Amino acid sequence: MSVSKSPIHERISEAEYAVMEVLWQRGTSSAADVCEIICPQREWSLATVKTLLSRLVQKGAITASPDGRRYLYSPVIARSDYVEEESQRLVDRLFGGKAASLVAHLAEREALSDADLVEIEALLKELKQ
Amino acid sequence: MSVSKSPIHERISEAEYAVMEVLWQRGTSSAADVCEIICPQREWSLATVKTLLSRLVQKGAITASPDGRRYLYSPVIARSDYVEEESQRLVDRLFGGKAASLVAHLAEREALSDADLVEIEALLKELKQ
DNA sequence: TTATATTGACTACAAACGTAATCATTAGCT
DNA sequence: AGCTAATGATTACGTTTGTAGTCAATATAA
């Protein structure tokens, strides 16, 4: 039986997720650091990034540790955990909880290339040991 | 190259999705029909269902055809298309667009049971013909 | 024919979200 | 010492979402 993981953080919105992604990639960062990366991409102002960071702190998805007169922000949840949560949510909502159905769907819809198929096959072989 | 499908409807919210699910299962239905199924499950009032239905019409996700003094609502988008959109969105957001990465993730996280693995393997074999 | 039940249209309203501006503080430069 | 730039806190404001209530029209039952 696998451990059922209940999320300790509130649901993260789309915009908030973009900020998380930066933190996961860069690791601990200041608001300015995050903006440097994300503001050009999304055409956001620094103010927007700050708002999102504080909302993420409120939601328990990141922590803020004082560093001089600013904060450094770090993810509380690992990217892999988040990915897991979201994947599971999708499988539950759309595939009746059956992950294999998702895979079947991807395959049928040709979302999987031939290379993907080969790769997956190899993967399965390994997992079955 | 697979046809890239751009969604003709606006983004559907969580609550709206629940209504879609009923329409997909029951097919064309009146507001009362939908409520009969969904209201007990979600503890909604009929008014809520009506609001969601009209928002879905606005968003172009369903159509309303007059039937006497009421409407019958039908999905415009097929469930499979919706599922495809959502799956693709997840793969793009979380797995850099690589569906195989999603499968790998599911497998590693043991979201896939042994039975699933066998099932998928059979599926792959078939797809490779 | 009159009361009632049903239906969509319209309105409501708080919470979440996207996107920021303003402000007070303070660190650093001149 | 005074000015400037950076920073978090606070406030703002339009939109979307969740969840309904109300109302006018009309079909139906008595």
Give the helix/strand layout:
The structure is a homodimer of 129-residue chains.
Chain A: H1 14-26, H2 31-42, H3 46-58, E1 62-67, E2 70-75, H4 79-95, H5 99-108, H6 114-127
Antiparallel strand pairs in A: 1-2
Helix pairs in contact in A: 2-3
The first copy, chain A, binds a DNA duplex (30 and 30 nucleotides) through helix 1 and helix 3.
N-to-C series of helices and strands of chain A = HHHEEHHH
Largest interface: A-B, 37 and 36 residues
Instruction: Look at the helices and sheets of chain A and give the structural class.
Output: mainly alpha
Spans of chain A of at least 5 consecutive residues whose pLDDT stays below 50 are none
Query: Mind summarizing the main beta sheet of chain A?
Result: 2 strands, antiparallel
How far apart lie the N and C ends of chain A? 19 Å
- Helix coverage percent of chain A: 55-70%
Chain-averaged pLDDT of chain A: 89
Q: Strand order within the widest sheet of chain A?
A: 1-2
Helix segment tally of chain A: 6
Q: Please tally the β strands of chain A and state the result.
A: 2
Shape of chain A: elongated
Q: How would you name the oligomeric state of the polypeptide chains in this document?
A: homodimer
β content of chain A, as a range?
A: 5-15%
Radius of gyration of chain A (Å): 18 Å
Descriptive terms for the model:
homodimer; 129 residues; mainly alpha; DNA-binding
Quick rundown:
2 copies of one chain form a homodimer. The first copy, chain A, is mainly α and about 130 residues long.
